[in-house]
Amino acid sequence: MRKVYSLQIQYPEQTREFNSRLTKTGRRSLSHSISQSSTDSNSSGDSDTENLEDEVSPRDMLQINSKGNRDFCVKNIKLADYGRREIELAEDEMIALMTLRKSAQGEKPLAGAKIVGCTHVTAQTAVLLETLMVLGAQCRWAACNIYSTQDEVAAALAEQDFPVFAWKGESEDDFWWCIDHCVNVEDWEPNMILDDGGDMTHWIYKKYPHLFKKVKGIVEESITGIHRLHHLNKAGKLCVPAINVNDSVTKQKFDNLYCCRESILDSLKKTADVMFGGKQVAICGYGEVGKGCSAALKAMGSVVYVTEIDPICALQACMDGLRLAKLGDVVSQVDIVITCTGNKNVVVREHMDLMKNGCIVCNMGRSNTEIDVTSLRTPELAWQHVRAKVDHIIWPDGKRIVLLAEGRVLNLSSSTVPICVLSITATAQALALIELFNAPEGRYKQDVYLLPKKLDEYVASLHLQTFDAHLTELTDDQAKYMGLNKYGPFKPSFYRY
Amino acid sequence: MRKVYSLQIQYPEQTREFNSRLTKTGRRSLSHSISQSSTDSNSSGDSDTENLEDEVSPRDMLQINSKGNRDFCVKNIKLADYGRREIELAEDEMIALMTLRKSAQGEKPLAGAKIVGCTHVTAQTAVLLETLMVLGAQCRWAACNIYSTQDEVAAALAEQDFPVFAWKGESEDDFWWCIDHCVNVEDWEPNMILDDGGDMTHWIYKKYPHLFKKVKGIVEESITGIHRLHHLNKAGKLCVPAINVNDSVTKQKFDNLYCCRESILDSLKKTADVMFGGKQVAICGYGEVGKGCSAALKAMGSVVYVTEIDPICALQACMDGLRLAKLGDVVSQVDIVITCTGNKNVVVREHMDLMKNGCIVCNMGRSNTEIDVTSLRTPELAWQHVRAKVDHIIWPDGKRIVLLAEGRVLNLSSSTVPICVLSITATAQALALIELFNAPEGRYKQDVYLLPKKLDEYVASLHLQTFDAHLTELTDDQAKYMGLNKYGPFKPSFYRY
Amino acid sequence: MRKVYSLQIQYPEQTREFNSRLTKTGRRSLSHSISQSSTDSNSSGDSDTENLEDEVSPRDMLQINSKGNRDFCVKNIKLADYGRREIELAEDEMIALMTLRKSAQGEKPLAGAKIVGCTHVTAQTAVLLETLMVLGAQCRWAACNIYSTQDEVAAALAEQDFPVFAWKGESEDDFWWCIDHCVNVEDWEPNMILDDGGDMTHWIYKKYPHLFKKVKGIVEESITGIHRLHHLNKAGKLCVPAINVNDSVTKQKFDNLYCCRESILDSLKKTADVMFGGKQVAICGYGEVGKGCSAALKAMGSVVYVTEIDPICALQACMDGLRLAKLGDVVSQVDIVITCTGNKNVVVREHMDLMKNGCIVCNMGRSNTEIDVTSLRTPELAWQHVRAKVDHIIWPDGKRIVLLAEGRVLNLSSSTVPICVLSITATAQALALIELFNAPEGRYKQDVYLLPKKLDEYVASLHLQTFDAHLTELTDDQAKYMGLNKYGPFKPSFYRY
Amino acid sequence: MRKVYSLQIQYPEQTREFNSRLTKTGRRSLSHSISQSSTDSNSSGDSDTENLEDEVSPRDMLQINSKGNRDFCVKNIKLADYGRREIELAEDEMIALMTLRKSAQGEKPLAGAKIVGCTHVTAQTAVLLETLMVLGAQCRWAACNIYSTQDEVAAALAEQDFPVFAWKGESEDDFWWCIDHCVNVEDWEPNMILDDGGDMTHWIYKKYPHLFKKVKGIVEESITGIHRLHHLNKAGKLCVPAINVNDSVTKQKFDNLYCCRESILDSLKKTADVMFGGKQVAICGYGEVGKGCSAALKAMGSVVYVTEIDPICALQACMDGLRLAKLGDVVSQVDIVITCTGNKNVVVREHMDLMKNGCIVCNMGRSNTEIDVTSLRTPELAWQHVRAKVDHIIWPDGKRIVLLAEGRVLNLSSSTVPICVLSITATAQALALIELFNAPEGRYKQDVYLLPKKLDEYVASLHLQTFDAHLTELTDDQAKYMGLNKYGPFKPSFYRY
For chain C, which terminus, N or C, has the lower number of CB atoms within 10 Å? Predict the structure, then answer.
């Protein structure tokens, strides 16, 4: 990880974006892809970068596939067979995309689309990319993260003549070189952008702004990318429509509420190996993440206290059977403190001074600022690294607190992104591309749009088969009575689900 | 209840409104007020109207209180002492309003306000009305429902010189006469309207439209009233701002999700006296009501199947551990069917023909159309009235299904509105009145507004003390970091809670 | 109820038994039978005894059925048709007995059995009695409770020539007269006894001890009856084997854990009409009843504190996510206190002095001694009867606590016995009779036995069909591997379930 | 692991014991101790035995501690400091033992006790051993498992002059040599035995039977050891009393119900990385293990089906809201199958042929026979080892099922024994030793006893402080009313908890 931070020093104007781009899904996809390609899903990611420096850069290798095609750049084209098997396994899991592929392949809704993309390059992404091709698109692709590429998957794509420029362990320079090779091509101009973090968009703005004349739209997946688009928009510089797939209902509920409900348990077991029954837990924040964590721990027999600043969420916590308290009032009695606020300095030194021996402290929110870890780096406190992601901070009187992941977001490093979240995201990306590419003139202006509710509902419906779930269809009569289109959208935009 | 329906025939232009005005809270408040004044909370409401016809109308009685004041019309002023005790008990329960009263009484934010109101006249309402007065308002009041008035409470208000015109068992003519006596007064013109169902607003539009020149705003509580206001607005006839307190987050979550979670159990026990453990239940619809019912029944050991038309809600049901099915596929195996869709003909004869012996069918949605009860009124089926709210429908082969409340909304008649819902509503009404009365010129136009989020949050915060809940306050630093005002609002408008 | 207590004075030697005979199931069956025969299941039982004194005693009436048979004594033989319908409805619910009836009717395992019984005489009992007859038995029957008889059911039995001696509102003298008419018959001597409370057994011991020579065994259902049998046994006077059906696993788990899980909610709603969400509740005792109450309230969003004396149960409470506290430490903050200990003075005046305004106090245990109600009958406290089962006790400073059922067991009076408990009990009684009647010489000695585990398992298996539950059968190979008989029993006697 | 099996061949008479000695806790303690001493708790245990053969045997090393003492045999005495830190950390977690140490150290209840022990030698055990010494005992110790010793802990004990003979990677010969060195000592004869697996007991019976004359009792922890004692007892050869601490309530509930509730989630995440929400799961067996697994998965949003042979447990599953089915009827629709029966061939090839693509199969029961893995070793099925504990079995049509831990007990290898289980066991062992050593003549005969309920309750009470749980004490009056001793035992022996 050190590499990333040093990059920030070299390119100061990129610092903030590069740092914050390591958002929830980004980092977790990273560890997920690693688990896929390794023999042990629990191996620590700490040593991933070992020995990378010694190797010959793919840019200096001969790149040619079995058909003689050279328009790609990957680590080792010989990994193609292994990568193909990984992709085939992923196809089994990405049922929604495979269904979409089948149902729309005759129609070819992306015929004529020329998509440049910059996302994680994993087996799951490969299923998306090959779906886009089946639907008629031409694509060129780079990685959005210098560590997250599954080299065997990139090889498998390249072997199929898919122009992919990505490998695990890119340098900063490699990173932009790959992006540039997607865009800067003779006789080929993209008309759609699929981005995760906004770097592809940024690069085109900076180097090839003329390309935007033909671009029909941008689909952006990450929070960071969305912020950058909003920033552009505010500055009046957004010149094409963009769809934000990050804030769709399906994505939000899955990535936050439902996934955190599971990953908090997983993460705590893998790091602190704690028994939940009878434990007293303080959960700071009762948004979707806090609701997920609370539900899981309560279900496992913990006694949960919640802290909140928002009285509405606070009232929900009460109705859900949780005691609402100020952290200072319960911190001396709890066994675990979990931050889920998105705020900073939620747990400060004063709180940690009050904690009892053995108290576990961790962060499930979005930043690394929720726990004031800096306040623990003082001479009177001893740090003891116990195992991966686990440090003991030892007070002069011998009291220890157990700090997980050094206060960084716990489940990003200690749990994996469930396939269903990846599948929901990929499906939403495909549908958003189709929507923007085919939308009649005037439907979308130069603005950032949420995924239209009808598409959000379609994403959901494509995932129901996984659960052997059978949807009811409105009769004509019922649809009329409700004033609804029989095929949706079924709810007003402000509906809270 | 027959009376209400006959009224619809006499006043055809009022029919729809009068019928639909018996909305969720409306009808439930009715039974709640009855339970308050009777010795048995479980007595059936069926006989409430008995003997009402024989009595002398309050309009023909001498109306005078102990101070000589005659500006009111109630059933029996002598009930004032009893009513005062009821109000005092209600004050214990309406802690939010009492807190508001205390905190704002110095300020008198309603000084100068002249409010005409038309709501249920119950002990809880009385606490609201006396709060409005403490805050500086002058008021005149009528009942929004011909049966729901607690006569002793009306008497207690009248004894305190509060101009109230309301009694239990009004005729249709009485109903409008009472409303008229609130508005049509010499030397007094209202400048605020608090309405529940829209009848007061309707009457002023029809009879005294000139009064709207001075009216600063309307606060409306019911779905029906909101519909009528939107109708006016669309027609370009809404000439003052209106605040919709029905769709506030606090109201919606409490009245639907949390209350239904409890009232489904209560209602089923009181009517069908069924054991929940091990029962198979089909719940049609997974909105807030369906979510509440499912959570409760699952928690009590039932096996729950959900039907949905909306794939997003369907996916939520899956993630919540419920099997999503079509009704036709499970109806022959379930023990209970509960409709929560708001739609019509959700359970039809074909389904009921498939049900097994003893299957219970009921409706927790918003209309009486979800179960096609008409289809059961055929010669080959025998109806057996077993007890209040319970009918057996007997098939030729002896199979019985148990129909509750004749397919009308079950918890309206078989459960009571929890005090906290009444309290939340009343507090929101008071805050909305204060907001509209004090808003600077231009903040509100001639439109229907949701309760501003900040007020919604304030309503919530006033109810936290009931739960001994302690809210955390943002530090200045944290507020800045989050880009929030330290005192809210804390969430964007589209936040889903 | 006053009547019962006065009886105790007249027959001092019976006092204890008569009083304690009003055990859990006994009293609840009473209210259940009432609900069956009335039009409103929620009517208070308070007025049941009204006008009973005025009527002509059945003993003085002409008793003759349509076939000319006179060997019975009921209130009104003309009610037979109505009673038959009640029995038919009950047959739908008593599926286990009906299955037993079908499967064993060819075999007639009770051919030659002459059973005298003394139980509640309700529709459910009638299904048992007619099952015994189908299986070959002759029976004579009396009621075990002076108020619990459903007269229409007794009439229906009598109309079928079943010798039943029972009516609602018997005097103490009637009670023993009825029992005597079952036993003291010319040319007929019982060889089996089915008892609920031990009065039949007691009467035979006292008046006709010689009959025991032919009696093959006693089946006893109630705690009181079991105590009396153990007493006899200790004194060396038990001269036949007896089976205790009260302590079977099926009975205990259903009557305590599962039923209390439901009836606590039902009872609190019906009496105090309280919302559970966010309420703080102290539950005293974490046995089966406390576990059931806690599970239900936690599931409905209450915050639950548990008090315990037994550290093992205390540890279970911890692991189930409940805070274990002393009552004195939490009593000032909770909204509801529920006793489930079986002990006395668990909630004392000192506790109640600390309670906050509006706190609800009730008892779900087995006695009326858990709450020290006597300590509340002091001059400085005012009692206000609010509605059936609800009293407000008012402190000098205006604080009120809400006492339910005057401290008597809450769900006995405010909830009904679920059919499945009645069905489990009745099935166990039938199987126990068959077992004792057919047991080879020497299998049972003069002692009190638990229901053999194999029969307990059979009772359970007969109830599985209600839940559409499909049991797996051991293969021969598996049975051998486990060292089990393929058809049970499947567990050692000490198994904890 | 191969080593163990080869040992069985060399010493056939030991085969069964050696194999079955790898019982639940045994094997799990093993992985737990590894996680303690490694830097990553998730490292696979597969490579533990690497390189062990090359090393010099501790038996051939010079064994001497800093004080010159030579009466021990460990891998490396220099690890003592590190081991001491491990023990100190364990002391923080073994609060019950530390409390016992404090409360009984004045009394020295084990003064005069000479204990030989054979258990896992881990930091937690060290806390037990040093507690025994504080309480007055002399001890000599060997390891009960050839791989489970934490060498640094053994070193720390040796450094304190504790005669310990144990190292990680003992040979079979070493194993018995160590045991022998505990027993076969000049001028020292043991009078108590603490055993885990029965090997120490076995050795003394075989080699030094005369020692039993002075032995006051045996405390045995494992199922295997208990079986061996019962076997001896049946054969009339048990010549001292023994206490079975394995079947105490505290142990059983914690090790099965509560731990499995957590470890099933942990194990499935670590191996199959599956999302639980919406998954359909078949759980075979509804004993304590099945109840724990079901509760956890239901709570996490899975739809759970249960299979059972015992109708009582089946009825419990129904009341807990789970569908009871035969495996064959649901196996084609479920996503996960978990066996918890203790039986064999519960999942057979026929079931696996019906499973859908991606179905996960695993075993949480006690043996490796529940899933018929042998039936999968046929030519038409391909096995693909995906990662540690995960194999894909691939059908000719491409269908894969995911087999975890090759059908061996999943949580033994993929989860750790919670400290609380270790603590409960160690506390029970200490109390059992004290009880046997101090029991008055005649209290215990030559038989195998359960831990007396009073001690079981005491074990529980010593663990309550971990949960900040406050027990209520009976008043004298209450104790008398209940017929209980004020300090327990509080329940009859057959109480089901």
Answer: N
